[in-house]
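Workshop exercise sheet. Pairs work together: one partner reads the sequence aloud, the other fills in the structure field after running the prediction. Swap roles for the next sheet.
Pair: D.N. / O.F.
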Amino acid sequence: MNEEKRCLYLLSCLPGMTNNRLMKLYQAAGSFAEAYAMEAEELVSLDGFDSLEKSFDFDGRKEREGRLIEELAGFERKGIRLISFLDGDYPKRLEGLPDAPCLLYVKGRLPSDEIPSAAIIGGRRCSGYGVYAAEHTAGLLSAGGVQIISGMALGIDSAAQRAALAGGHDSFSVLGSGVEVCYPGASRDIYELMAGGRGGVISEFPPYTPPEAWRFVSRNRIIAGLSDMVIVCEARKKSGTAITVEYALTYGRDVFAVPHRITDELGEGCNGLIRDGANILTDMDDLFSALGSGCEMAGSKAEKIRPEQKNLSNLARNEKMVYSRLDFNAKHIDEIMELADMPAGELLKALFGLETKGLARSSQGAYYRKVY
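Structure field:
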């Protein structure tokens, strides 16, 4: 690792340091190595660093340097790469953005510059329909050769990424913590897959940085920046997804939103986006067309392998009956039993068969919803 990147890493670890402040340092000092070599008095005399509050405990940097250098030496063993905006393998989609990250930490891989990518995002609290929309969209897009990017959060984000990975395709997650911190813990399964090379986990924060609310806001711009389009599957009226959408529009990315019933509180954000001019997602061909002709051809192929076309013919009679009574919003087992007019024992056997085939999923014990 050259001196410039080493000093960029050390500066990024200063208390209170942000991406904007790093770029200010670089522009004012001429290089990260020059900035790190300065004394605190010189630092605060730079343009934009006119108070001691902006010194980031700069005088104590030498005391921490040994530990940080030791950690840095161990990153390679942990599969962590450091990629700065000065490197040739820095993502081309981020180049030129006004707030592009100075430094990225990566476990696994970065999204390819040559392959279309789509961010699939939404709320942590979500309905069965929202989860279905995320799974369906991610499954068909990834089968059509599109890279799926999200934030690994509970709800829509992780549902989309699980669907892509379950289909044997890669996914990429941008974290609001360091890449050595899996948050939330419930996403450990997909974190391990992506960090192990089935895509990658990415962060602008040093590897052991804990999650904080402002970091998730900051990471949303990277999700938007790495994507050719942003798809909102479900979001409340006041949702953090609006931040990612705002970045996407600033960067000139296409924004699609899944429509919801006017009575669905969890979908008010999507309907609001459509009202305000976002593309309405009614057909997967719309996405493939927006991403390019090559993807459109792959998308047509993906449409032919939908699970409902592939698996339903193999269902037993009772399984077909129960499946037809399920919805993408979870129903209580008593309601399903009444709709299917089936004894409890036969119903449970059918539901177990549907779960085994990946066509139904239980939640909260007594509720079941359709997966596809």
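Discussion prompt: Residues 288 and 295 are 5 Å apart (CA to CA). What would you look at next?
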